[in-house]
Specification:
alpha+beta; OB fold (Dihydrolipoamide Acetyltransferase, E2P); 5-stranded antiparallel beta sheet; 3 helices; 5 strands; 43% helix; transmembrane helix; DUF3592; DUF3592 domain-containing protein; membrane; transmembrane
Length: 124
Amino acid sequence: MTYLIGSILLGIWGWIAWRILYLRLKGRSTVGTVVKLIKDDTGDGTVYFPVIAFDTAEGLHIEAKSVHGTEEAGGYFCIGDKVNVIYSPNNPQLFAIKGYDSAALVFLTILTIAFAAIAWQVVD
C-alpha cells in the first residue's frame, strides 16, 4: 500500500512538474481576469478553483478553470482580479496562473518528501 500511495504522489508530482516546465518553455504570457470561483465540497473540506478568462495572441477568447484548487483560493482570488497567465499556444485551455500553480508543485513536493520519510521509517 505504501508503494502505491508513493507511486501515485510521484506520478501527480511528475505531471504537474512537466506541465509547469512545458508552459515555462513553450508558453505565452498574457493577463487574465478571474471570472468565477468554482466551489467543490466533495473532499475533506471546501476547495475553490479559479476560472480565468483571457485572450490569446491569436485572438481567441478563452475561459477555463484552473486545474489546481485550494481552500485558500476562495479568500485569495476575487472576481474581477487581474492575474498573470501563461498558456500553451497549441492548446490555450492548458494554462497556469503564474505563482499559483508553481505553489501547488512546491506543496506537492513537500507532501511527497514527507510521505517518503514516513514510509521509510515504517519499512525499516
